[in-house]
Specification:
39% of the residues lie in helices and 15% in strands. It is of the alpha/beta class.
Length: 477
């Protein structure tokens, strides 16, 4: 295998080849480092790199193989972590000058588990400040670009993670999703972004543990890799109340059943819109064509128009008030170094009354119940992930977007209304590639399931992967 082929080999295959001694961890790391040195300057996917330490870890991993030591699920496999999650001895800035020199003394549980499984941390990936928007740029690190078209955004807020995986700068990336932030960039860059059920992957770092909207999720090129990462990262942690009591599961077993008869008889709901009025014509054509896969496997498909969109205003109250409470103390000192769209969010958050916040908490509960009742009738909900492909890299987050040549509304309301309802409700949801436009921009399909039904979501995604494969596609710089 040449170096580029190594960089686009799945983590599942790399781990298997390492255990069979058909490839060495050092060989893998050399290939990844070479590609990062060649291409990261173009896409700006990493906020920090720790390649010297990664190479030393690869040498240690190779020694363990030679000594026939017990090897973990990810032995010798590189991974990256979004710059919103803490990493021991590696800078965590949250994409902000406020924490420019912040070096944590411990790892987030998911990072600790990936390392314990033999994974090797190669660096931190870029994010907008505090993950506040669906575009990845920040005053501290500048603009991150989409490997499929450098003039386009990789989405956000896990945009550096998606750009890195799509460009072959490491097969695995850890993202976070507070309103769509693993699914949006996955759709923009033609990879997989999985948001599991709230608490499935513990997130004790959240400042609001009981009202948490943010999920930690795998970002990969293959469904098998997403399942593998979830196997490693999932499981209870006493620091996260939503994770307490959740059982460990084996998500890789669903991959054995790719395209199996397990989908037969499933009731699948399809919705082209979710509060928005416009969907780019190519996006609608490509996503709707994916329904044939479910039809071929014997699913019952019904077109629906669920009433989830009316909760957007309450989501904004939760998000903006959270940012204001967390960051007010820094605004005066860092005013000129804070992203204008983040300053806007903080200002809006300060305008809400306590009753506005409490009402939004009540409305979140109502949405949860509404979505659970929806899944009493259906096994899965299918939607586009975004109403259009990746936007311009320089798009202002406060400006409206254009769909089908018409001004359609705000980023959240017109581009990704499909994603944030399921952060409010906590349901598992995944974005997978389902096609490319005539301009060679990826299009994502979102699959949503009932609480704790990640296996059904992964099974459906694996069926699409078999019928409409995508992992062979590589972006051309």
């Amino acid at each position: 295998m040449n170096k580029n082929d190594i960089c686009f080999t799945s983590a599942t295959d790399l781990a298997r080849l390492v255990k069979k001694r058909e490839i060495s961890p050092v060989e893998i790391m050399d290939a990844i480092i070479s590609r990062i040195e060649q291409y990261n300057v173009l896409i700006n996917a990493f906020s920090d790199l720790c390649l010297d330490n990664a190479l030393k870890a690869a040498q240690k991993a190779e020694s363990d193989v030679v000594k026939n030591d017990t090897l973990g699920l990810l032995h010798g496999v590189p991974f990256s972590v979004k710059d919103l999650l803490i990493t021991k001895d590696v800078r965590t800035t949250f994409g902000s000058y406020i924490f420019e020199n912040n070096i944590p003394i411990e790892d987030a549980p998911c990072v600790h588990r990936l390392k314990k499984a033999g994974g090797i941390l190669i660096g931190k990936t870029t994010t907008p400040e505090f993950g506040h928007k669906a575009l990845t740029d920040s005053p501290l690190f500048g603009i991150t670009r989409n490997p499929w078209n450098l003039e386009r955004t990789p989405g956000g807020s896990s945009g550096g993670a998606s750009a890195a995986v799509a460009a072959g700068l490491g097969p695995l990336a850890v993202g976070t999703d507070g309103g769509g932030s693993v699914r949006i960039p996955a759709s923009c860059t033609g990879i997989i972004g999985l948001k599991a059920t709230l608490g499935r992957v513990p997130h004790p770092q959240s400042p609001d543990l009981f009202g948490n909207l943010s999920h930690i999720g795998p970002m990969t090129r293959t469904i098998s890799d997403a399942a593998l990462m979830l196997d490693v990262m999932a499981g209870p942690d006493i620091g996260d109340p939503h994770s307490c009591g959740l059982f460990k599961d084996d998500y890789q077993t669903v991959i054995i059943n790719k395209g199996s008869k397990l989908l037969k008889g499933m009731k699948v709901a399809w919705s082209a819109t979710l509060g928005n009025t416009q969907v780019e014509s190519e996006v609608l054509e490509i996503t709707k064509a994916s329904l044939k896969v479910f039809d071929n496997f014997g699913c019952e498909i019904e077109e629906v128009a669920p009433d989830f969109e009316s909760f957007e205003d309450f989501y904004l109250v939760l998000m903006y008030s959270n940012l204001a409470a967390r960051l007010n103390q820094y605004v005066e000192s860092y005013q000129k170094k804070i992203d204008p769209s983040l300053r806007y969010a903080i200002e809006k958050g300060n305008q809400y009354a306590a009753t506005d916040l409490q009402k939004s908490i009540y409305m979140r509960s109502q949405l949860f119940q509404k979505i659970q009742n929806f899944f009493n009738k259906f096994d899965l909900l299918i939607t586009p992930t975004l109403s259009s492909p990746a936007l311009e890299a320089t798009h202002n987050a406060l400006d409206p977007i254009t769909v089908n040549g018409e001004i359609s509304g705000s980023l959240r309301g017109a581009w990704y209304p499909y994603t944030h309802p399921f952060n409010m409700s906590g349901n598992p949801a995944i974005s997978i590639p389902c096609g490319w436009t005539k301009d060679d921009l990826p299009v994502g399909l979102q699959i949503v399931g009932p609480w704790l039904k990640e296996k059904d979501v992964l099974l459906a995604a694996a069926a699409i992967e078999v019928e409409k494969p995508w992992s062979h596609k590589r972006p051309s710089f």
